[in-house]
Design brief:
This protein has helices spanning about 30-35, 40-45, 55-65, 90, 145-150, 165-175, 195-210, 215-225; strands at about 5-10, 15-20, 25-30, 70-75, 105, 105-110, 130-135, 155-160, 180-190, 215. The protein is of the alpha/beta class and about 240 residues long. It binds tricarbonodiimidic diamide. The site of tricarbonodiimidic diamide has 9 residues, from helix 6.
Length: about 240
């Protein structure tokens, strides 16, 4: 099978058909600030444990996606160290004791270059994979994501990451309005609230897939298996040369 053959993945509200050569995996905000204690999530009063179930399925999916030679893109929510791009309304929202830009256990919260802002080690970007630093919830707002996707001829997205109802939903809605098909993988997206996880996915697939499709990573990983590029070619069998030293 070549990378240009269409694949069909079971999904709701109906199967997702995509051409891997024109499809990118977009992993949203799998950052330490959202998935490890002491970051932005904790400052907002959330239990990071709710999100950690997404790490292993994302890791397996990313490995299969890379093995197939397809485009993976990572996003990070965060702000300039001088906070010049941080809207005052976002800074004070929630009335937390520590807010964006303040010092926490993993460095300044949601500030670019700080340990907590970076992507968790399990899903760390590989060389050559674009990383989109975004100041907002949506990955298209004030970023070059759309240009990168257009330049690569991408028209369909597989979207994973956190959180389902905030940055994943916002990104899927932005993508939908820009003409992209989005498949969201329910085991690879997470919320601090089960009700928002359920509602966030329901809103995507409702009304005939008003914003996109919802599927599971195991179906996608299985469909990608035939595309895997062998990492080392089998050693050619060279007949022994008579008289060679
Ligand atoms: N990445 C993302 O979803 N940012 C958030 O602030 N999410 C919350 O659920 N708070």
């Amino acid at each position: 099978m070549t990378a240009s053959a269409a694949l069909t993945i079971p999904a709701e509200p109906y199967p997702f058909v995509f051409d891997p050569a024109h499809c990118a995996l977009v992993i949203i905000d799998m950052q330490r600030d959202f998935l490890e204690p002491g970051g932005f999530a904790t400052a907002l009063g959330n239990d990071v444990g709710m999100l950690r179930r997404t790490i292993e399925p994302n890791r397996k999916l990313l490995a299969a996606w890379r093995a197939a030679g397809l485009l993976a893109i990572h996003t990070r929510e965060g702000h300039r160290p001088d906070l010049a791009d941080l809207p005052p309304a976002k800074k004070v929202r929630g009335h937390g004791e520590i807010t964006i830009g303040d010092k926490g256990p993993m460095g300044r919260i949601l500030v670019r270059g700080e340990p907590g802002h970076d992507i968790i080690p399990e899903l760390y970007p590989a060389a050559g994979e674009p990383v989109i630093d975004k100041p907002g919830k949506g990955a298209f707002f004030a970023t070059d994501l759309h240009a990168i996707l257009q330049n690569r001829g991408i028209s369909q997205l597989v979207v994973t990451g956190v959180t389902t109802e905030v940055c994943v939903n916002t990104t899927v809605r932005e993508a939908n309005d820009r003409g992209y098909d989005c498949l969201v993988l329910e085991d690879c997206v997470g919320s601090y609230f089960q009700a928002f996880q359920d509602a966030g996915l329901a809103m995507i697939r409702a009304q005939g897939g008003i914003f996109g499709w919802v599927g599971t990573s195991s179906d996608l990983v299985a469909a990608l298996a035939p595309l895997a590029i062998p990492t080392s070619a089998p050693a050619p069998s060279v007949p022994a040369l008579k008289g060679a030293a």
